[in-house]
Structure to design on (261 residues):
């Protein structure tokens, strides 16, 4: 039931994220004006704004002018729904679920924007600091359970440490990444630090591994050169999502090989 509810929530959030991804890079409000067809300007009717279903019923075309509607819209909605359901299955019904779902929505929006315009907008990243801090505080308080404050302190320190690490990388090689990556690193560092320093370290390392593998693959296929610009934000977000899952077995293996030997 939890997975189904979160998946349905993901469909609705995904529809909103389509608006965010289009308007935020352009400095437009995500609230007004209402969504309209970019070809004819007609406002989209409520019945034509049902995630995925409306696109299918309209056969991917505007009701008024027949202009094609990109497949990206239903794909973003479906992807967000799947990710929300997966997060719910992994996290379960806990006070950690709200922050995990929030970061999932932010990750979808930021990844698409970074791919589109090679930017991580402050309008999304900066408000995430107080939101993530507040939701992690709620998870540490655990209403109805036993409060556990050390993870929250570790989260705050993790945010500072990861932001500082990325800032050092930018100062050492300004062409390698931008300040948007530094700002995002602080948010992801808080989330990863809440789980522990081992997960934090894996989350710091994974984006470089994943991004490096993709870069080598693109060079091998002739689709990129050594100086080609590849958005790094999506790899930071993917690394932060994967780290809490893979870090425990990975660290157990590493300790078994080193200490156990």
């Amino acid at each position: 039931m939890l997975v189904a509810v979160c998946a349905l929530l993901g469909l609705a959030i995904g529809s909103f994220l389509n608006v965010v991804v289009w308007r935020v890079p352009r400095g437009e409000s995500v609230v007004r004006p209402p969504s309209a067809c970019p070809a004819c300007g007609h406002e989209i009717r409520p019945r034509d704004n049902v995630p995925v279903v409306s696109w299918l019923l309209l056969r991917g075309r505007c009701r008024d002018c027949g202009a094609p509607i990109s497949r990206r819209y239903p794909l973003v909605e479906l992807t967000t729904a799947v990710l929300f359901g997966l997060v719910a299955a992994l996290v379960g019904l806990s006070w950690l679920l709200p922050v995990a779902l929030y970061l999932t929505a932010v990750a979808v929006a930021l990844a698409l924007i970074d791919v589109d315009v090679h930017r991580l907008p402050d309008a999304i990243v900066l408000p995430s600091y107080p939101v993530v801090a507040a939701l992690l505080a709620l998870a540490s308080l655990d209403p109805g359970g036993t409060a556990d404050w050390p993870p929250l302190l570790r989260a705050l320190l993790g945010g500072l440490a990861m932001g500082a690490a990325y800032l050092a990388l930018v100062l050492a090689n300004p062409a390698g990444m931008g300040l948007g990556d530094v700002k995002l690193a602080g948010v992801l560092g808080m989330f990863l630090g809440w789980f522990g320093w081992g997960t934090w370290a894996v989350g710091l390392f994974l984006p470089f591994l994943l991004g490096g593998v993709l870069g080598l693959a693109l060079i091998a296929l002739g689709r990129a050169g050594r100086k080609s610009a590849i958005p790094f934000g999506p790899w930071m977000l993917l690394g932060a999502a994967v780290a809490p899952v893979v870090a425990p077995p990975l660290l157990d293996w590493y300790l078994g090989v080193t200490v156990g030997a």
Summary: The mean pLDDT is 91. The CA atoms of residues 10 and 80 lie 5 Å apart. The chain has two domains: 1-93, 118-261.
